[in-house]
């Protein structure tokens, strides 16, 4: 892989490789920002968000295999993604609990 052969901090890294590094960084930042963007409508569908998260995590997994420190620059956006996912899970769980709590009363 290019990122293993030409590390970001290499002194003899060619300009084209630096541009590639920057484009990949921008892509990851863009994907993570889109996932954590405002939750107001029109929010992306859950399937779209799941694909975006999966895509970004797979790229990061591949890049981190070559350099463990690579993920450090994306730590805060990743924490925001996890926060969003936990909020959505909590909201969904609360909604299901309310619905289940209402059903038995309606049957009585």
Fold and architecture overview:
The model has no long low-confidence stretch (mean pLDDT 79). The chain is built from 4 helices and no strands. The longest helix is centred in the C-terminal third of the chain and has 33 residues, at 75-107. The chain has 108 residues and is mainly alpha-helical. It has one domain (2-107).
Share in β-strands? under 5%
Distance between the termini: 64 Å
Residue share in helix: over 70%
Q: Determine the number of helices (DSSP H or I, runs of at least 4 residues).
A: 4
SSE pattern, N- to C-terminal: HHHH
Shape: elongated
Radius of gyration: 20 Å
Total beta strands: 0
Sheet bearing the most strands, described? none
Low-confidence stretches: none
Count of all domains: 1
Indicate the structural class: mainly alpha
Furnish the topology, listing elements before pairings.
Blueprint: H1 2-5, H2 15-36, H3 46-66, H4 75-107
Helix pairs in contact: 2-3, 2-4
Give descriptors for this structure.
74% helix; single chain; elongated; 108 residues; mainly alpha
Quick summary:
The protein has 108 residues and is mostly helical. Helix content is 74%, strand content 0%. The chain contains four helices and no strands.
């Amino acid at each position: 892989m290019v990122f293993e052969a030409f590390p970001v901090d290499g002194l003899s890294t060619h300009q084209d490789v630096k541009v590639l590094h920057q484009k990949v960084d921008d892509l990851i930042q863009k994907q993570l920002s889109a996932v954590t963007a405002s939750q107001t409508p029109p929010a992306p569908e859950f399937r779209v968000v799941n694909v975006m998260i999966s895509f970004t995590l797979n790229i990061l997994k591949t890049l981190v295999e070559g350099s463990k420190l690579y993920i450090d620059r994306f730590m805060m956006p990743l924490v925001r993604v996890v926060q969003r996912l936990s909020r959505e899970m909590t909201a969904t769980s609360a909604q299901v609990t309310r619905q289940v709590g209402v059903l038995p009363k309606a049957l009585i």
